[in-house]
Amino acid sequence: MSTAAKQFHEEEAIGKTYDFQIARRLLRYLRPYLRMLIPALILTLVLNLLGVLQPKFTQYAIDWHIVPRKTDGLMLLVGLFFGVQFLRFLFSYLQAVLLNTVGQYVMFDIRRELYDKLQHQEVAYYDRNPVGRIMTRLTNDVDSLNELFTSGVTDVLGDVVMIVAIIGVMLWMDVRLTLVTLLTVPMLFAATTWFRKGARRGYDMVRTRIARINAFLQEHFAGAQTVQIFNAEAKSLQKFDAINDDYRKANIDTIFYYAVFFPLVDFIGAVGIALVVWYGGYRVMNDALTLGALVAFIQYSGFLFQPIRDISDKYNVLQAAVVASHRIFKTLD
User: pTM above the 0.85 mark?
Assistant: First the structure.
């Protein structure tokens, strides 16, 4: 295949993952909908702060009522817990509605701008770019941005708030037990770094190969009559098998990182909880810590690793959105 033909069929590889110029340009599409976006962000912060309160209810129930066998005030505590959970349910509903509404409006604006731009492109543009790739811009790439606006940024922001709040509460409760809990953080950081780099390469392979499939299918379906005239069905199928197999291998290679990372994070989290049980149990037996506080620490340890895991997972959403932004803005420019 000639160099020109390869450039026609191949999708460009990922360059710089983060680009603040791209971020500023994306913010331009959000600006008309700030009245909905700002309340959604506030709700995200409130939701995560309310989530941090849950282990404290457990601690107070154990220390104030279960261990001393006192029922006075227990129903009030249960009622407050139920009220907090109901507020989380209500705020979560409002947040989802606002974020998805903003996302759909932004996607509408981007699709409209893309379509208008493509209508005014010169004929030579369509000679250089297969229609399958152009369709990917209007569909897959725009959908990647939708996921970023509706869940990616807000979830990462909420997870960061959750991590800071949990560590702050744990330090306030017991500094030494908190330091023991955080002993596993370097291991988690190393695992996250390995996953991020591997997943980036894997996503690059998957993205370029699905774009190659889209371009190949469009070209061969549009020219199906020509393929049949030259009796080239078998040759065409052979080419598609090779492209399809490359896509399959890219997905399998990427799955390896997910298959290792998430169980590894669970294992590291289990090690952290084991350390809390070991050292915290010792302190409880020496009356340096209450049983309720130990149970709350165990819950906080589990809560601490979940947002870190979520942030690692959302890295791929961010990456997909940045890559899609580059491709969309390249088309618009």
Answer: no
DSSP string for 27-67: HHHHGGGHHHHHHHHHHHHHHHHHHHTHHHHHHHIIIIIIT
Task: Please answer whether residues 195 and 257 qualify as being in contact, where contact means their C-beta atoms are separated by less than 8 angstroms.
Answer: yes
- Domains of the chain by start residue, with CATH: 31-332 (1.20.1560.10)
**Model confidence pLDDT, tens digit, residues 175-226:** 999 899 888 888 888 888 888 778 777 777 887 787 788 778 777 777 777 7
Burial group, residue 98, by CB count within 10 angstroms (0-12, 13-18, 19+): buried
Nearest Cα residue to 264 out of 178, 214, 191: 191
Query: What's the rounded Cα separation, in Å, for the pair 32 and 36?
Result: 9
Model pLDDT for residues 302-323, shown as the tens digit of each residue: 888 888 777 777 776 777 777 7
